[in-house]
Design brief:
With 255 residues, the chain is an alpha/beta fold. It has 2 domains: 11-30 and 57-104, no CATH class; 117-255. Helix content is 32%, strand content 20%. The two termini are 32 Å apart.
């Protein structure tokens, strides 16, 4: 008798991998971070290219990457414990040993827990724009953060960005290219035409624009130059358009 495959869907879009028998599940939760940088070789039990997803949400993108790229190790972080619980459950059920999730904010994680030149790729999809101008200082994509991303990548490592907020994207375009050879995409990601993330799926279903791009870390950028850029480039001050807050509400609702 053919075994029935347990495929999980979200808004009709499959989440990669299938739910295995419980005896094949693994543990993807990283429940405690060390005082200093993570030992990635000890964490995964091998040395492999490393992928980091900052603000990974429920893990949709990273789970897909872990399924399709077993030769890469993957680490996802998010500041919200509830979404990390969804992510770890899904990773566990798929038996993914090349995947870990932790609760942490991106700024602190890169500053305290990542050694320089660690990751082959860093992804950041739909960072919170903080619609209230009084909270603009909390916006993640800022010159100092971009310098930290650059330090955390291997030479020539890749940085992926995505947002559905036009004001945020205009700001990103203005500053990211100082640290990365940046290229905008005018189409969906080839590996996920219906959306890499839950947020992207919702935006596309509502006919809203989604802005995407990726860049390669500039190899001729010294530490002194990055410090200077972090001090001189403008902070993330822009009109985040409060009307887009409706997407935040929808993203938090079950299907």
């Amino acid at each position: 008798m053919t075994k029935h495959r347990q495929i999980e869907r979200e808004f009709g879009v499959p989440i990669a991998g299938e739910i295995l028998n419980a005896n094949l599940w693994t543990q993807t939760a990283l429940k405690k971070l060390p005082d200093g940088p993570l030992d990635m070789t000890a964490l995964f039990g091998r040395s492999a290219p490393l992928v980091l997803d900052i603000g990974c949400g429920n893990g949709r993108y990273l789970i897909g990457s872990a399924v399709w790229r077993p030769d890469h190790d993957h680490l996802g972080i998010d500041i919200l414990p509830v979404v990390i619980r969804y992510a770890t459950r899904r990773g566990n059920q798929r038996g993914l040993r090349n995947l870990r999730f932790a609760v942490c904010d991106g700024q602190r994680f890169l500053t305290q827990h990542v050694a320089p030149h660690t990751f082959a790729e860093i992804h950041c999809y739909h960072p919170q724009p903080y619609y209230d101008p009084q909270q603009a200082r909390r916006r993640l994509i800022a010159p100092e953060f971009l310098a930290q991303v650059h330090r955390s990548l291997l030479p020539g490592g890749k940085f992926f960005l995505q947002t559905d907020n036009p004001g945020y994207w205009t700001y990103m375009r203005a500053v990211v290219s100082f640290f990365f050879e940046f290229e905008e995409l005018d189409r969906t990601w080839l590996d996920a035409p219906r959306g890499r993330t839950r947020r992207e799926i919702i935006a596309l279903r509502r006919g809203l624009p989604v802005f995407r791009g990726w860049g390669t870390a500039r190899v001729n950028l010294s530490e002194e130059e990055m410090v200077r850029l972090a001090e001189q480039l403008p902070p993330p001050v822009f009109d985040a358009d409060r009307r887009l807050r409706e997407l935040d509400r929808l993203e938090k609702q079950p299907e």
